[in-house]
Give the backbone structure.
Amino acid sequence: MKKLIATYWTTLDGYIAGPNGEMDWIRGDEELSAYEIGMVSDADTLLLGKKTYQDFAQYWGSVPANSSVPQWEKIYADKVNALDHVVISRTLQKAEWGKSTLWRDLDATKVEALKAAPGSSILMYGSATILQQLTNLGLLDEYHLLIHPLLLGGGRLLLDNIDQRVQLELADVHRFKSGVLRLVYRKA
């Protein structure tokens, strides 16, 4: 069975974006780039909400033709563009980035069938609302949190609107040279 892994860049106080959606606080370096490349290398599917899907398709879809981007971005783009993409949106008209499938809603049965299919991990980026729904449905297997050494003080919270207590166990901790801390939690 495939693991469904949510991976998020967050601040110490739990925000994934500032009050106006700003993400200028995210730190990046070669070590973090290698981590991200490893994540997509170990997956075969991306599960995304509409906005993240559109942002990824626009940016990562254009990287292979852009000669001015760093080499790590080309490697990441090749891998992320080749994955199967599942986008959940009631309003998106069509999903045309690579191998994409459009779901009109988050259906636990569809997610369970996706997890039961042969293959590698399913990665989830973006869309805190979908993350919250998956958490409430008990469908997430791992949470990979990349905690930045910063208190943002306001904005978009990662884990808001959780219906019930969820027991997790700490599976891994890694401190990057940048000061970012990766915490991996699994369902207990």
About this structure: Residues 4-187 form a domain with the Dihydrofolate Reductase, subunit A fold (CATH 3.40.430.10). The CA atoms of residues 64 and 74 lie 6 Å apart. The first strand starts at residue 4 and ends at 11. The chain has one domain: 4-187.
